[in-house]
Amino acid sequence: MGPILLDTHYWVWMSDASLGELKPRERRVIEDSASKGELLVSVISVWELALLEAKGRLALDSPCDVWVSKALSAPGLSLAPLTPEIAVDASRLPGEFHGDPVDRIIAATARRLEARVLTRDQKMREYAGRGFLNLV
């Protein structure tokens, strides 16, 4: 079915169960995708996580750089880069989409890589409901 791109919150929850709870179906999707080497997280999610931690909105159990390095070393997980094409795509998403730059880059990354997004974000789910994004 192709790659799965994790929204930031899913990457955090996958990496540290104390920070959020995965439903059994979500865990199966993540594990299946990872076993195929098709699990992705956008580099913009690293920035978002670091920003949340720096602002005190997210408490990690180790220094941010250590946490990120460990979280990115999960088997089957790959880092999706922010390419010039994705950056341009994020500014030209079809249809109506909100202005959050992280969500725009995640959406553009998924579209460019033909990946499905695993998210609970309502705005991204609504965007997908209009046919502009594929979700898990």
**What proportion of the residues is helical, as a percent range?**
40-55%
Q: Helical region count?
A: 7
The CATH architecture can be given as 3-Layer(aba) Sandwich
CATH topology name:
Rossmann fold
Write out the CATH superfamily name: 5'-nuclease
Rg estimate, integer Å: 14 Å
Shape: globular
**Mean pLDDT score:** 97
Number of strands: 4
Beta-strand proportion:
5-15%
Distance between the termini: 10 Å
The largest beta-sheet arranges its strands as: 3-2-1-4
For the record, the count of structural domains works out to 1
Descriptive labels:
Rossmann fold, 51% helix, 4 strands
How would you characterize this protein structure?
It is a single chain. With 136 residues, this protein is of the alpha/beta class. The protein has a single domain, classed as Rossmann fold (3-Layer(aba) Sandwich), CATH 3.40.50.1010. The protein is built from seven helices and four strands, in the order E-H-H-E-H-H-E-H-H-E-H. A four-stranded parallel β-sheet has the order 3-2-1-4. Helix 5 packs across helix 6 (101-113). The longest helix is centred in the last third of the chain and has 13 residues, at 101-113. The termini are close together. The model has no long low-confidence stretch (mean pLDDT 97).
